[in-house]
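Q: What residues go here?
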């Protein structure tokens, strides 16, 4: 799939996602790249940096400039920082840091399917299916491990699947904090979200 990647996909995803270079496993790194290549090939997007975070929420909060790339970078930074602290404090803890990084990077890959360029209302994927399910499809199609599909599926309340692994829990909590940080730009009290 890498050879068929759209020209708009950077040679290395670390051009958009600095944490991408931190994935040590070359197969996992290639799988993350393939997931984004697949999402670009199957949707109308030609620029990953143009994909919005959550258009209806952005409109409600008056934050039109939020992008999925920024959000994913926040999630990756938060999840990996937390994983690093845990690994430093509890060296006997079995945390797959590569899985945390990769999970943070692909947790919202399906936003490319949920929203179309110039259409803030969302596609049928957004209305009827939701990104955790589309994200699992993308992960599986890209040949990523089932543990990564689990991270994607369990990172949001749009499913009844709770995180079964520490890696999935780290990404879920980082996603919640990153989303709260976006909302905090517009709200004095996050309880008003």
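A:
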């Amino acid at each position: 799939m890498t050879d068929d990647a759209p020209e708009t996909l950077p040679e290395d995803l670390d051009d958009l996602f600095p944490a991408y270079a931190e994935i040590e496993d070359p197969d996992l790194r290639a799988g993350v790249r393939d997931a984004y290549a697949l999402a670009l090939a199957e949707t109308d997007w030609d620029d990953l940096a143009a994909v919005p975070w959550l258009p209806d929420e952005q409109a409600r909060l008056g934050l039109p400039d939020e992008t999925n790339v920024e959000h994913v970078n926040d999630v990756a930074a938060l999840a990996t920082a937390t994983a690093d602290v845990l690994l430093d404090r509890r060296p006997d803890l079995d945390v797959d840091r590569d899985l945390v990084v990769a999970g943070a990077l692909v947790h919202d890959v399906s936003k490319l399917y949920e929203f179309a360029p110039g259409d803030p209302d969302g596609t049928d994927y957004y209305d009827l299916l939701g990104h955790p399910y589309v994200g699992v499809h993308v992960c599986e199609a890209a040949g990523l491990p089932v543990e990564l599909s689990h991270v994607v599926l369990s990172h949001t309340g749009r499913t009844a699947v709770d995180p079964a692994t520490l890696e999935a829990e780290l990404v879920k909590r980082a996603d919640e904090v990153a989303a709260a940080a976006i909302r905090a730009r517009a709200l004095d009290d996050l309880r008003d979200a």
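A: Context that may help when evaluating the design: The CA atoms of residues 115 and 122 lie 5 Å apart. The mean pLDDT is 92.
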